[in-house]
Amino acid sequence: MLLTVTRDLIERKGAEEALRDERARLKATLDVALDCIVTIDGAGCVLDWNPAAEQTFGWSRAEVLGLEMAELIVPPDLRERHRQGMARAALGEMRMLGQRIELRALHRDGHTFPVELSISRVETGGDPIFTGFIRDITQRKEAEAEILALNADLERRVEVATAGLRQQAEKIYEANLALTRFKAVADITSDFVCITNLQAEMLYINPAGRALLGHALDADLVGMSFTTFASDDFIRRAYEYGFKRAMETGAWQEDVMFKRCDGSEFPVSMVGIGIKAEDGTPMYFSGVCRDISERVAMEAQLRGSLNVERDLNMLKTNFVNMISHEFRTPLGVIMSSTEILTKYFDRLPEALRNEHLNDVVEATRRMGVMMEEILLLARVDAGSEFCKPEPMELVAFCRQLAADVDLASSQKCPIVVCSTIAPQDAHADSTILRHIFTNLMNNAVKFSPTGSPVKLEIQRYGDDAVFVVSDQGIGIPQKDMSQIFNAFHRGSNTSEISGTGLGLVIVKRCVTLHGGSVELSSELGQGTTFTVRLPLFAEFGEVNLKVRTTNG
User: Which of 112, 125, 202, 545 is the most buried (most CB within 10 A)?
Assistant: First the structure.
């Protein structure tokens, strides 16, 4: 029992160190992110605050941890709505989760500024937490406002150009001046800026846009259709509702996928602006886009780290549950029998004394088997268990395994071994084969009614030996089939039958270790069949090569 606990602590420490390493890598990534990344709990209190947030809002991480975010960066007139939204988000009812929204934020010195916010809800096994990705869009808003103002000015001047040749020339001059001012702004921004006609043909694209699409900065892209760099999904959404929304409401904002000239795709945050004449006639579309690949990758990394932590917690819980459940019964038998023998040894008949002693031995054996399963699985997962094929007489070995299982199960179910293989040497690791087929035959006997036959068939196909272990037992429910080889998972119809949920995990690991494969078929109430294929009849050197290749 001490060895088991020690092993558990070692494995847990290793898992915790791996998680700490993952968190350290994630923290390093968050520390260099250009966007503000703020994590809060369900009550709205700050759990994390990266350096970009410190610079943007004027509060250091040490000052804000544990404080309510609403009091720090939400303007007073928006705080009540923010708190109501957080209450709905904690219940999973927040409609803006996963969406990009624009709102005002509060700096430490009291001034407010526009930001772009995206919120993700993360399930951690307890109360949910929320991560916000915040970006100061003051410059972008100013650029958009400037672009809209310049475009509006250009439209007005085009409309009055028909008043006369002189007026027309004057208006053209002023329009060109406005366009020059527009290009002066667009040419220096790091965001993708373009203007198209109503046929989605390029009239202008700034240098940042050319670079983002993989073109040379001086490439002539005028006349190119936006479908050249738009993903199929973006094109579909643009024609379904995007262009219409931009013209009706003034802007279409969405995260979409663009294509570079080499065919690779990347995510962007886009604002599409509809430009109309004073009489409402649609004239142009203008787009302002920003590459968000870094943010998307960071979100995926954060989700992956949280998934690892959740899986480790689940594995730890399952292991503790298995230990407490499976060890409690034999320990109870040992304690009960030893107490009876200690108090009443001289007064008990010899047959009853032997019965209690046998109970202690059997309970100890059962705990030893469970301990060996856990240690074996740990050795395989740690890479310290190796496949060492040696010449062996395969059929005789399997018959002896069947006899051992038959004896250990008090001949509950007859085990029939059938083979068409002639007596000849195979090359196999007898220890690994013993783990595989002892577990499969023990399971077949355990989950079959008394007297129901269990069959082990052995055949040869080229260099492979194919083993089929079948029974007529309770079978495996369909919903459990995809998880039956996962650690600690047991069929939902086995709650009344003792077991650790490790036997089939050991089978799968050992089959893989020997360079083979295992398949499963089962029908509820009709029985289960496992088919194991192992490369046992190649030349000895070839077997070793195949095993090493299969296992990396």
Answer: 202
